[in-house]
Write a structure and sequence with these properties.
By secondary structure, the protein is of the alpha+beta class. It is built from four helices and eight strands. Helices cover about 55% and strands about 15% of the residues. Strands 4-3-2-1-7-6-5-8 form an eight-stranded mixed sheet. Strand 5 (about 160-165) and strand 6 (about 165-170) form a beta hairpin. Helix 1 (about 5-35) runs parallel beside helix 3 (about 95-135) and helix 2 packs antiparallel against helix 3 (about 95-135). The two termini are about 50 Å apart.
């Protein structure tokens, strides 16, 4: 990819990252503000297996990206110092040594920018997952819906089933539940669910309104 096109791509990608990040922050604040207006809220324990897996993968990817960036920077230093000039055919009449270096620098710089962007994205993902693992171990059940760390699902789109000390919740038309541990105010939780949520049925076909 030409250097100019690569720079344009890099700028667009950064802007998209910024938009997604800002949207996520705004959405999170709106969700928290809505939750503060709720009454009769009950916390249930989330399963954090997915979050832990996502954190490990993101941290590993960020570290791998950082290593690649290090080698790219080392290669750029060698190109600028002339250590890569041996690859240039000295008798070429179509390309000078300076042009050869500029061509190599363009490729290496573009490669480094791509991995820098990926490293930023993976690092941000790891930070968000670490924050979720530390501060958002609960889902909150209210009369109006279910609150997670940065999302809200209205009660009419959620079905539930109680199995021992586990609460199974089926979001939307999914027949695979998200499992939560019941650890507080079981009576209030049961009354809130029975009054506002639909009980899960294996015969559910996603047709109810």
């Amino acid at each position: 990819m030409p250097t100019k096109a690569m720079n344009i791509f890099f700028i667009i990608a950064i802007l998209l990252y910024a938009v997604v990040l800002i949207w996520s922050i705004v959405h999170s604040f709106r969700t928290k503000a809505r939750l503060r207006r709720e009454t009769n809220a009950v916390k249930v324990l989330r399963s954090m297996k997915y979050v832990k897996t996502a954190l490990i993968c993101a941290a590993f990817s960020a570290a791998l990206s950082a290593v690649i960036i290090y080698f790219d920077c080392d290669e750029i230093r060698e190109i600028k110092s002339g250590l890569k000039d041996s690859g240039h055919v000295s008798y070429s009449k179509t390309e000078t040594t300076e042009e050869y270096r500029e061509r190599l620098l363009g490729k290496s710089t573009a490669h480094c920018k791509i991995w820098a962007l990926l490293c930023f994205g993976w690092t941000l993902t790891a930070v968000l997952r670490a924050n979720e693992l530390k501060n958002h171990r609960h889902a909150i059940i209210t009369e109006n819906g279910v609150y997670l760390s940065d999302s809200f699902s209205p009660c009419e789109k959620v079905r539930y089933y109680i199995k021992d000390d586990r609460l199974l919740m089926y979001f939307g038309k999914r027949n695979t539940p998200a499992e939560y541990g019941i650890f507080e105010n079981r009576e209030l939780l049961l009354s809130t669910l029975s009054a506002n949520y639909k009980l899960y049925s294996e015969n559910y076909e996603g047709k109810e309104s």
